[in-house]
Amino acid sequence: MDGADRHFERSLGQRIRELRGRRSRDIFAAELGIHKNTLARYETGQRMPDAALIRRLCDLCGVAAESLLGAAESLEPDAAEDYIRPPLLRGGGVGVSPVSVHRKWVDAQRLPAERLRLYVVEDDAMAPVVAAGEMLLVKLQPPVPRMQGLYVLEMGGSYTVRRLQTTTAGRISVQAEGLEQAESHHPVSAFHPDGAYPLVGAVVWQVRAPE
Fold first, then answer.
1. Angle formed by the axes of helices 51-61 and 3-20, to 10°?
2. What CATH architecture does domain 112-207 belong to?
3. Residue 6: what pLDDT?
4. Average pLDDT in the 149-175 region?
């Protein structure tokens, strides 16, 4: 582990410690659903929190992901190379500054940096899970036989978010929690580039604005 990696882990640990405030480690760890010793390792930079834990931190403390992961502009110029700035998917992101994410975090999640894109949600089809205007980090990928979670699809020439779930029959269930419509089921071929709902990629991170 080089000096830049250690600096990032210590900096992230300090941010977590600041979010804990006057709460004891016992109480804060319980709120996060982890052991107090695990929390201590995060705060001291001995261990890197995964995406799920960072999401719980943001939701619990009402902060945006960038306040934890940091932005390249806040560092010295020669440290900017330690960050990636995923390109915006077309549509929905015009005039919006992309989010900068530390390479160390991307590597820890085993995400391919060159296949990451930022998508600004255009509709409320998945509200309140995902609302219009929120940003999603998306991993570009082809459709696979088994899919589960939030995905960005093309529908009617526009991007949108849906929850996909492989059924016991081997078909893909498509759900839009913000719309009053029945759940639909389709073969995997429907999500191929020439299918009815071309798959763009899987949502790997949701950037929520603080309330």
1. 30
2. Ribbon (2.10)
3. 53
4. 92
